[in-house]
Design brief:
Oligomer: single chain
CATH topology: Growth Hormone, Chain: A
Structural class: mainly alpha
Number of domains: 1
Largest sheet: none
CATH architecture: Up-down Bundle
Order of helices and strands: HHHHHHH
Helix content: over 70%
Strand content: under 5%
CATH class: Mainly Alpha
Distance between the termini: 56 Å
Shape: elongated
């Protein structure tokens, strides 16, 4: 939705390049820190904090109705720092899940876990790719090569979908991680200890 947000709500398409750059920059900033933070506090704990930060910022953006694209980009940059942590550590969750399954079942199924995750990720990406179009139709967006001015209700709809919807999704991810996902640092360390003892016992 960012293309439509900057074009129709902020009326500034030139700033889209800066918005993309700041998104990449936030990821680069988190790259050397993510593993260190995860090692100290735990992957679940770090990712939960990151997505909660993103949720709070997006919901704040929705409430504040930011008019300045530069202010919007700065706040999105901060939000992307939180999501950058999640993005950097997502694949590391798989190893913890595989260890957890081995502790509980006695069998290690790396291929099955990676396969299910990869398939689920592809389904989600396909759904997300089409979601923007459905949302634009739902809010009454009028597509035109002549640059028809969108109604204020459409502009507000674009802004709402670009801020409130991600905020709700990030909040849902936080709640799932914190309340449902069982592999916090304590459990991950315990699983590693159990597996190490088993392997030593087999030697």
């Amino acid at each position: 939705m960012n293309t439509y947000l900057y074009k129709d709500y902020f009326n500034n398409t030139q700033i889209m390049a800066l918005a993309s750059l700041t998104s990449t920059l936030s990821m680069l900033l988190m790259a050397p820190l993510a593993s260190k933070l995860a090692g100290k506090f735990g992957k679940k704990e770090v990712c939960s904090a990151g997505v909660l930060l993103s949720a709070v910022i997006f919901i704040a953006l929705w409430i504040l109705r930011i008019k300045s694209p530069m202010v919007f980009i700065v706040l999105i940059f901060i939000s992307n720092i939180g999501m950058g942590l999640m993005s950097m550590l997502t694949w590391a969750f798989l190893a913890d899940v595989i260890d957890y399954q081995e502790v509980r079942s006695g069998q290690r199924s790396d291929g099955s876990v990676y396969g299910i995750y990869s398939f689920s990720r592809k389904l989600a990406q396909a759904a997300a790719g089409g979601l923007g179009g459905f949302v634009l139709v739902a809010i009454g967006y009028v597509s035109s090569v002549e640059g028809i001015e969108q109604t204020q209700s459409v502009k507000d709809g674009i802004y709402n979908c670009s801020t409130l919807l991600p905020g709700i999704c990030y909040l849902a991810v936080f709640l799932l991680l914190w309340l449902v996902y069982p592999l916090g640092k304590k459990q991950v360390d315990e699983n590693a200890r159990v597996l190490e003892e088993r392997r030593h016992g087999q030697n």
